[in-house]
Structures are given as C-alpha cells and as structure tokens.
Specification:
Layout: H1 2-29, H2 33-54, H3 58-89, H4 95-100, E1 108-115, E2 121-127, E3 130-136, H5 139-156, E4 162-167, H6 179-185, H7 192-202, H8 208-211
Parallel strand pairs: 3-4
Antiparallel strand pairs: 1-2, 2-3
Keywords: Membrane, Transmembrane, Transmembrane helix
Protein name: Membrane protein
Amino acid sequence: MARSDSAADAANPGRLKQIALTFKMTRKADKTIGFVLAGVFLLTFGVFLAIGFLIDHPVYLGIFGFLLAFLATAIVFGRRAERAAFGQMEGQPGAAAAVLDNVGRGWTTTPAVAMNRSQDVVHRAVGKAGIVLVAEGNPNRVKSLLAAEKKKMNRIVADVPVHDVIVGTGEGQVELKKLRTTLLKYPRVLTGPQVTATNDRLRALGDLMSNMPLPKGPMPKGMRLPKGGGGKAR
C-alpha cells in the first residue's frame, strides 16, 4: 500500500510538469489562453454559485459548480492546446504521420510508404474503413505517388476499398487538424479479421521505412533522400 502511495506521489509532479509545459507551448501560439481559461472557470463557477444562492443552497451548488468549472476549463484547455499543436505542425514534412499515429485503436499506420526527393510523402493507414493513403507535399507531385501506391495495392488487396487524402489547406485538401476526423468518418466495411488479413498482405509490399531510418513525426527540413530512393517502395 505504501509503495502505491509513493508511486502516485512521484507521478503527480510529473503530470503537473507536463501540464505546465503544455500550457507554455500553447501560450506561444495562443496569447490569450490564460484569460480564456480563467474566464471559463469563473463564469461557470459564478453561474452555479448564483443559482445556489437563489435556491438557498450555495454550498452544494458551489461545490458542484467548482467541479464542473474545473472540468469545463480542462476541456477548453485540451482543445486549444490541440489547435495550437496542429498550427505549429502545419506544413512540416511528416506531420501527418504524427497525427495518424494517434487516430485511435483499430488503425495500423505505416509512415512513408513512398517519398520523392522533394520530401513529398505518402503514409498508409489501415482500419475497418479499408486503406487510407495520406499524402503531404506539393498537390501536383503527390498525385503521381498516390496513383503508384494505388496500383500496387490493387494487385494485392483489390477487394479492399482504398481512400486517398491530400493534407493541406487548398481546395479538395484536408487540413491537418481535420485529418483524424476525416478517417473516422469513413464507413466501416471490414471486420477485425479482414483488417488483420489486409495488413498481412500489405506487408508484402514493404515500405520506405524498411530501407531508410526516418524519425517519427515531422522530419528535419534539411533531410534528403539518397540517390535511387526517390518514391520507390520495396
């Protein structure tokens, strides 16, 4: 029991430090975050406290209002922190792969299944919606990468639906912050065993990651492919 308590005590400073770090990072992109959070907390707490005085139960409504205000503040903080993170990642090579890694359970992500010398890249996600190819880079150049990957998969998984997404802010593109939502909106047409079978068959294609070590998340801007590696998947 004592060990559990000490472990919990050790974990709390870590959580508080992480929250503080997240707040500092968010404030760099969102200067009003502190005022917004304070306003949400005070407004929510104030409304319930006022209702408590009106019905002659200020203590009960005050406690309830405090808890609800804390919850509302945490939700607002999480959303604005996420928005700030997406804003900082927007336009960086490999940012889409970082988002795909956090889509949720049931999805298997393979980053950089195809890439060219200009750092246009295609990632692959497999789930109950089928296969989703996510491209980031120049819209005109990534279309050829997407077409090549679709052709490969049609020879191996022709019975599985394939969707393609180009990440960006232009017409017909999907913003980075909406990428996860876009994947989750696709209709589920495969069962769990079918998803597993699809992943097994796709491993026969290989990917760029098996030929060349790439960092997870956004890649350094100065990184370049060696000769012979542009857009070829093993």
